[in-house]
Write a structure and sequence with these properties.
The chain has 204 residues and is an alpha+beta fold. It has helices at 3-15, 29-35, 117-124, 171-174, 181-194; strands at residues 38-50, 67-79, 89-93, 110-116, 138-140, 148-152, 155-157. Strands 1-2-3-5-4 form a five-stranded mixed β-barrel. The longest helix has 14 residues, at 181-194. The two termini are 33 Å apart.
């Protein structure tokens, strides 16, 4: 990748990572690996809009607005079982905007750590995203800057933390910056294996 492609990547991730952690902040690669519901190696290839499932309510209207999702192709599943609507891809909130040109999307491969909305609702007792059965197909990053690691010319490139966030880049992921990307993948595979976590096939 040349300077132009790297600039596009930096601009995209800066625009799509400016949200701080909620309950999730991680001190190490092992910690975020253990906590993620799904980890995939892939690329951002576009955006889609989806909305809540129709509800039988004569005279009623849908109160939930459509949500924009980034489409991440799956090159490798490092942990978990993807629930998918589109073959070979997962849908991630807060990632891109509708009408975004393909030329504005990052070209590089990434590792992305994800939380599934249905599982989040089950774990926390919350409402999920739409609060219906479709939540199983939708994912989010646990925070804006620790959950994506980029492959820039064979080495890891991290994402800068939100402006003003105190010590946004702590030990993780800052210490990974500049390491060989293949070495990162092996470290994740070892972490998954040592945690007795089974990588399974895709669920449609």
């Amino acid at each position: 990748m040349g300077p132009t492609e790297i600039g596009i990547s930096d601009q995209f991730w800066e625009a799509n990572s400016q949200f701080s952690p909620t309950a999730f902040r991680y001190e190490s690669l092992d910690e975020i690996t253990a906590d993620a519901h799904l980890i995939v190696r892939g690329r951002v290839v576009g955006t889609q809009e989806h909305e809540a499932l129709p509800v039988e309510d004569p005279g009623g209207e849908l109160t939930a607005r459509p949500v924009t999702f980034g489409v991440i192709t799956i090159n490798e599943v490092l942990k978990g079982v993807p629930n998918i609507l589109q073959p070979g891809a997962v849908l991630v909130t807060r990632l891109g905007s509708m009408g975004q040109e393909r030329s504005e999307l990052p070209r590089e491969e990434i590792v992305i750590f994800l939380k599934n909305y249905e599982q989040l609702a089950e774990e926390s007792g919350g409402n999920g995203l739409f609060g219906d059965a479709s939540d199983r197909f939708y994912y989010t990053r646990p925070n804006g800057y620790q959950a994506v690691l980029r492959n820039i010319n064979g080495v890891v490139k991290v994402i800068a933390g939100p402006e003003g966030w105190e010590e946004a880049l702590g030990p993780y992921p800052a210490t990974l910056d500049g390491q060989p990307f293949d070495q990162l993948l092996e470290a994740i595979r070892r972490s998954v294996s040592s945690g007795s976590l089974v990588v399974s096939s895709v669920n449609g």
